[in-house]
Amino acid sequence: MAEAATGFLEQLKSCIVWSWTYLWTVWFFIVLFLVYILRVPLKINDNLSSVSMFLNTLTPKFYVALTGTSSLISGLILIFEWWYFRKYGTSFIEQVSVSHLRPLLGGVDNNSSNNSNSSNGDSDSNRQSVSECKVWRNPLNLFRGAEYNRYTWVTGREPLTYYDMNLSAQDHQTFFTCDSDHLRPADAIMQKAWRERNPQARISAAHEALEINEIRSRVEVPLIASSTIWEIKLLPKCATAYILLAEEEATTIAEAEKLFKQALKAGDGCYRRSQQLQHHGSQYEAQHRRDTNVLVYIKRRLAMCARRLGRTREAVKMMRDLMKEFPLLSMFNIHENLLEALLELQAYADVQAVLAKYDDISLPKSATICYTAALLKARAVSDKFSPEAASRRGLSTAEMNAVEAIHRAVEFNPHVPKYLLEMKSLILPPEHILKRGDSEAIAYAFFHLAHWKRVEGALNLLHCTWEGTFRMIPYPLEKGHLFYPYPICTETADRELLPSFHEVSVYPKKELPFFILFTAGLCSFTAMLALLTHQFPELMGVFAKAMIDIFCSAEFRDWNCKSIFMRVEDELEIPPALQSQNFQN
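The structure corresponding to this sequence follows.
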């Protein structure tokens, strides 16, 4: 009985909701019926006749002013709608209508009527969308002092946004600090330095941390048994201070490498000491975790310095050793640095071995993995590939595999081909990227464009096949083909990560909202009416009066097109000999 009563109540509720959805149509017909019934007491016909007489007395100047004002207002609305759409990606009028008018008209969210199973499925897809919209640290990020700042000095433009640098500050506080930093004065200073917004303040704090550490070591030397002058050099230095100076103060890669080597000496000593004490409590465990992050970061940046300075084989060896020593630290994505260095050495067999390990369905994908896999398969056929020959004889198995790999890569990140084919200009990559977004495409193309150019015919094969990907992806993007549906949050995040002078690539291309098209048409139509009324006031006045008479007179059903033209001819005093010819025309 309870289930039957619950089902009846749910059915009754749905019927009431359905009736309220269409209640406005019933109300509209009721209003029309009341107007028809009360047409005599309200003297509707007399009022329409008086309105028609008033409008017939208006001069053409009134119509010029009316249409001109309408054109101006609709033009202003069009400009505002276009600006709002370019900035926020949606129509202001549409957003207000959906947010405020829809509830008043009885609109109901369809998701509220879904069952628990569909809700669970939606929550899973939402969680996947959120994870794909997560901002990641760029594994190939440049050096601020030696590269980003030099770009600013030359061009006067800031390549990094405040949002991007703020994310980097949060990363530094997460990786390079711990709760016990207040016990050591140098670490306490660096903990504040990572939160500083002013670069000069951060650099000054790093120098202060090194000076305090040096003074403290000199004071502690006499207290150490059997101390000598050489023991001053064995005391620990502040590794994070050297990291900050190498990243932001060094103006060349060589200077940064020297500072990172000094940081390595200090960081390695701290890591070995904390490794021995990590099991003595949670505080020591946190220190060891921090020292591990510092050591991995230093070694990775030293490998990147060697790669920048042309010592690619040395860089590859350092990256391999680092991945063997710390196999569980995948947060730095060192394998992407290794792939880029191996491609520079043209060690394609080693690249394939790395891809076999990391291009797994259970591991997160990236543009580097997908496009490197496509490059290797394209390399096998690109030198002999010809679109004309392929259209005549069809694609071979190897060519089909290469095309499928390109389609897979383009589906993962559709922004990359335009940068590889040099259809869009490159900028310096940001310090953080959004996977499947424009920021990731810039970061990949910035370092891998040379590798694609080195493989003969690879860019030609990409140019001939990449647009075919979009024929396989369902539209609109409810579901993907090989990956999850393309997230809708990439444009907003990329606009925060990339500088303002860069035109953000948007996928899928958003269609212009209806209200922008409507206001554009209204503005153009009213502007044309204003121009015609100004140039031909008598003719437009006759047409306006004729249209008013059609809609306002009681005998509007007897009007037809012939009567309109006859009235126009009478008003303009057209000779009788030309009237029949004008009417036929």
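The two ends are 77 Å apart (CA to CA).
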